[in-house]
Specification:
The complex is a heterodimer of chains A (681) and B (327).
Chain A lengths: L2 H6 L8 H7 L4 H10 L6 H14 L5 H7 L3 H22 L7 H16 L8 H17 L4 H13 L5 H13 L6 H11 L5 H13 L9 H13 L13 H11 L7 H10 L10 H15 L5 H12 L9 H14 L9 H14 L4 H13 L7 H10 L4 H6 L2 H7 L1 H13 L6 H12 L3 H14 L4 H16 L6 H11 L3 H14 L5 H12 L7 H13 L7 H10 L3 H5 L3 H17 L6 H13 L6 H15 L6 H13 L5 H13 L3
Chain B lengths: L5 H12 L5 H18 L5 H11 L4 H4 L3 H12 L4 H10 L2 H6 L1 H13 L1 H4 L5 H14 L4 H13 L6 H13 L5 H13 L8 H10 L5 H9 L12 H7 L8 H11 L8 H14 L4 H10 L3 H12 L7 H5 L1
Classes of the chains: A mainly alpha (681), B mainly alpha (327).
């Protein structure tokens, strides 16, 4: 949405001076200064106008300014004022006072969406977001004429992870009855919204989009085509209903994009790379290869910004191993980065260097000149570069890190954060030199003095370091002891996440299993849900010990308290999970057998399209071992008994899935045959 | 989901799982087959023809016999334009049960498919290689060109297979009696580096290695030091393991067998052939260990009768010395 259209949505009549001034602001800081000068003049309309202008300016705001916003008292006060107004609105609404117009709600929802996506707290309570959502729905129901408003609200709420089933159904119905409503703008908004939610109706909408986007595809710019390509890939239609196929529309877009790779913007090129993370292995990588070579070419010709290069390396590292860069291509990129370090201020930030080192280690392609260059640059920085990736890379290159470690002024650092101290601790312990034992003891003492919440962050740093030795193990044991003693002070999600992160070797895993056998037996359903969230919300891959621990705990807790649907969805969404667990033969077999047993206890929770998606993910991972067919049959039987209204097409596809694998019972096969004969689907 | 191939797929499945189909069902199947045959002439598109042929191959060979030559002709014409997906689809469509029991019927088709493997090679995916190899192993023959290309494809994906798939590769190559030592060495290194990932398949893999007499230094070292006593290895895999130990000529053979036999119990699943192999070996080599032969006897009900049947089937006239021949 451009500025003109944003501004035009305001009523110009009766505009206060403040609102006129707000529309002329050029930065978030300017808006907040206005608010600071005269906060009492900011009534409801002015607050909404200010927040709307802030969300409009967000895209052009530098990252450092956004980062500071979270702690900016002016912003906190402004957003809290909005929260109070929503409460007031509720009060007025209860007294049957006329409700504010729809545009206000739309603007507020849009601000909440943009800021939430950017990771900035909005200070609006969950209840108030729900309230706004409900009011928006009521207004839409009262005035069904405005389809675009409906789409906008759906778009905002999808990003806020609200239940948008009814809106989605309404949109789909309106699109089917009035195909003219399907414009380029609607297509892009709906497509992006669909990727945010997962439900039967959303996939029906996604399928509608897949079959109809071609009508407006010519109106798309090349960059919009890239956005569509990425979003269709994200939907993972090869795993999801209703027709369980790879998006055909992507083949059409691929052909068009392949011919115009050179004309694409850098952000669009990155979107294509991102898309390949979600596309099935069977998809041709022709476009990806062209994009990769185009980017490499641009890097060589110095036509790409440094932050794009880093983002490109990051995106590539998430692809399947054989789709990543060749070793010589990595070297080309690294050489260019070496040229830029020292010249480009982007590489003068410790944060960038840390990120670069993480990517470097993940790529597995060793290139000593890059590490040495980073080392030289790190010495010039105002703040010391405290990073375990840095130490690891230097150790790999054969550089002695003693001097670097000793140059850190521990006293100053300890004032800042225990996470920095633990990084230095890891650095010293990696030297494996007894001479540093007193230093390690001193550091350990300082680290253990931290609060439980800080200790959870220490554990995160340890797990991200990827180094484990006796000194680190000792520290983990001591931290775990403290955390167990102070469990009540921590949210159970944080506790479980820390538990998994600390599980760095088999000894620690055994200790946690002992703990679980004593204390986690009677875990409530809600807590098991948090355990599942904590396990699956991992940025990196799980270690074998973490997987074994998770499955052992699932066996320990009461099977009735396992949120089965949540578990199925989690393993379906986590792309790498089956690949990881498939290497743990016995655990994997046992897990599939357990799922078969647990399914019986939770048959009401089963939805055919979710179950089917999970089975497809399992098969797609290549880890289709012997308990899998039994599980598929069981889940089919239970889903059939629990069939949702209107989901017969999914059941038919599920039936065919079993038939194709020789798992379908004779009576079901006969029934299916009769259906195919009558061609009723 | 409007797909004209669904009906033939459904009816062919009914024929596959029902050993005594009704006459009515057979007639309907014939009708469905006729409509598929008419599809073959509807389009020149190779993909369309191959999809149709794949649907036809799902039917029992008795129904296909009549127009066998015609299918072969169409396959021959279309296969050259096949991509890896449609090529694999043909293999996958032939039910293993039919292929195993009617080798001569499928022979010309398999020859055609094998001769054209090069069209699918290179882009083929790990799971597809396994599926193709399975059908080839059931067919039992492999031509030189296809063999080389398949080996290249397996090597290409060697780091991407799952433990289950490594086991399948060994199983299918062994079924073809291919003693691919170079490949097996690599797979064995993977097993040795992380045996726990293969634990439920180790017994089967050991027996497959025994079948083709695969014997190398790293296998010897692995078995000689494998912690049979404390491992998670199931007792069902112990008989299979015990079969493999003798061919390695280990110095501590007796000690290893001692541990293995201590873990074999009556609940162990015993495959008759393997048990009889082992029984023969133990009876002649370890005459001082009658308890071992007794353990094996306990595994199979009516052991003596079963053993006599086995001996009549598999053993030659020189009954007492044929263990070496079997190895």
């Amino acid at each position: 949405m451009n500025k003109t259209s944003e501004v035009s949505s305001f009523k110009l009549e009766g505009y206060s001076q403040i609102r006129i001034a707000l529309s002329d602001t050029k930065s978030l800081n300017q808006i907040l200064e206005m608010f600071e000068k005269d906060p009492f003049s900011f009534k409801k309309d002015e607050v909404i106008a200010a927040l709307k202008q802030m969300s409009f300016l967000l895209r052009t705001t530098p990252a450092y300014e956004i980062e500071n916003l979270e702690n900016d008292e002016r912003y906190i006060s402004l957003s809290k004022k909005m929260n109070e107004y929503i409460n007031d609105v509720e009060a007025r609404s209860n007294n049957k006072i006329e409700y504010p117009n729809f545009l206000d709600i739309e603007d507020v929802l849009s601000w909440i969406r943009k800021f939430t996506v950017a990771g900035i707290p909005t200070n609006i309570t969950e209840e108030n977001i729900n309230l706004l959502f409900q009011k928006a729905v009521n207004l839409i129901e009262g005035n069904p004429g405005n389809f675009h408003q409906l789409v906008n609200v759906y778009y905002s709420l999808s990003f806020l992870k609200r239940n948008t089933e009814s809106l989605c159904h309404r949109i789909l119905t309106q699109l089917k009855t009035s195909p003219k409503l399907f414009t380029k703008y609607v297509a892009l908004l709906l497509l992006t919204s669909c990727t945010q939610r997962e439900s039967f109706n959303h996939y029906l909408l996604a399928d509608y989009l897949q079959n109809n986007v071609h009508r407006v595809l010519d109106e798309f710019t090349l960059d919009e085509k890239c956005l569509a390509f990425e979003n269709f890939a994200r939907l993972e239609l090869h795993l999801n209903p209703p027709k369980y196929r790879a998006p055909k529309i992507n083949q059409v877009i691929t052909e068009e994009l392949s011919q115009s790779v050179e004309k694409l913007s850098s952000s669009s090129l990155l979107k294509i790379v991102q898309a390949y993370e979600f596309l099935p292995v069977s998809c041709s990588t022709y476009l990806l290869n062209r994009v990769k070579s185009s980017i490499i070419h641009k890097i060589q010709a110095k036509k790409l910004d440094s932050h794009v290069i880093i983002q490109f390396l990051e995106e590539v590292s998430r692809l399947r191993r054989n789709s990543r860069l060749e070793d010589h291509e990595y070297i080309i990129v690294y050489k260019e980065i070496i040229n830029r370090i020292g010249k480009d201020p982007y590489f003068s930030q410790g944060k960038t260097l840390r990120r670069l080192l993480e990517i470097y280690l993940k790529s597995g392609v060793k290139f000593d000149p890059l590490v040495l260059k980073i080392q030289a640059k790190a010495l010039e920085l105002d703040q010391p570069l405290i990073s375990t990736s840095f130490y690891r890379a230097l150790l790999q290159t054969g550089v002695d890190i003693r001097k670097i470690l000793e140059s850190h002024h521990l006293h100053e650092i300890s004032q800042n954060s225990p996470t920095n101290l633990v990084k230095i601790y890891i650095g010293y312990s990696a030297l494996n030199d007894e001479a540093f034992n007193p230093k390690l003891d001193e550091l350990r003492e300082k680290i253990l003095a931290a609060t439980p919440l800080q200790l959870t962050k220490v554990i995160t740093s340890i797990s991200e370091a990827g180094i484990i030795n006796t000194s680190i193990e000792k520290l983990i044991y001591e931290i775990n002891d403290i955390l167990i003693r102070t469990t009540k002070s921590l949210d159970s999600y944080v506790f479980f996440k820390t538990m998994f992160r600390s599980c760095q070797n088999s000894n620690i895993r055994k200790c946690w299993i002992e703990y679980a056998e004593t204390y986690l037996k009677n875990l409530s359903k809600e807590s098991v849900g948090k355990l599942i969230d904590a396990f699956f919300n991992f940025r990196d891959t799980h270690t074998f010990d973490q997987i074994i621990l998770f499955h052992r705990i699932l066996e320990i807790v009461d099977p009735k308290n396992i949120p089965f649907r949540k578990l199925l969805l989690a393993i379906k969404h986590e792309r790498k999970y089956f690949l990881e667990i498939s290497w743990l033969d016995v655990v994997f077999q046992k897990f599939l057998t357990n799922l078969t047993t647990w399914a019986d206890l939770h048959k009401d929770d089963l939805r055919a399209f979710e179950v089917y998606g999970m089975l497809k993910r399992l098969e797609y991972s290549g880890a289709y071992i012997h308990p899998a067919p039994k599980l598929a049959k069981k889940l089919y039987e239970l889903s059939k008994a629990n069939q949702e209204e209107g989901a017969s097409s999914i059941m038919n596809s599920f039936t065919f899935y079993l038939l194709d694998r020789g798992l379908l019972e004779y009576k079901d096969a006969l029934q299916f045959y009769e259906l195919t004969k009558s061609r009723t689907f | 989901m409007k797909n004209s191939l669904l009906e033939p797929k459904a009816i062919s499945y009914l024929l596959l799982i029902n050993k005594n189909p009704s006459q009515e069902l057979i007639e309907e199947a014939k009708e469905s087959l006729r409509s598929l045959e008419s599809r073959l002439t509807l389009s020149n598109s190779s993909k369309y023809i191959l999809n149709t042929i794949a649907a036809i191959f799902r039917f029992p060979p008795e129904l296909l016999e009549q127009n066998k030559e015609r299918y072969l002709e169409h396959l021959r014409e279309a296969i050259k334009d096949a991509n890896h997906d449609s090529y694999t689809q043909i293999y996958e469509s032939i039910p293993g049960q039919y292929l195993k029991d009617n080798i001569s019927f499928y022979e010309p088709f398999m020859i055609e498919l094998l001769q054209n493997y090069s069209y699918a090679s290179n882009r083929i995916l790990p799971g597809q290689i396994i599926n193709i190899l399975n059908k080839i192993s059931l067919y039992g023959k492999l031509d030189n060109v296809a063999y080389n290309l398949i080996m290249v494809d397996i090597e290409k994906w060697l780091n991407s297979f799952k433990p289950e798939q490594y086991h399948m590769i060994i199983r299918y190559l062994v079924r073809l009696r291919l003693r691919e030592t170079h490949l097996f060495d690599k797979i064995l290194s993977k097993i040795i580096s992380s045996p726990v990932n293969f634990i439920s398949k180790l017994g089967e893999i050991a027996f497959d290695f025994f079948t083709i007499n695969y014997n190398c230094e790293q296998a010897k070292q692995f078995i000689a030091t494998f912690p049979f006593k404390d491992s998670l290895l199931r007792s069902s895999g112990m008989v299979s393991f015990a079969c493999y130990v003798p061919i390695l000529n280990l110095k501590n053979e007796k000690d290893i067998l001692e541990v293995i036999f201590s873990r074999i119990n009556e609940s162990s699943v015993a495959f008759k052939k393997r048990t009889f192999f082992l029984y023969d070996f133990v009876r002649f080599v370890y005459k001082d260990k009658p308890e071992w032969t007794q353990t094996l006897k306990n595994l199979i009900p009516n052991f003596e009768t079963e053993y006599q049947n086995y001996a009549a089937l598999y053993k030659g006239p020189n009954k007492d010395r044929d263990f070496v021949i079997i190895c």
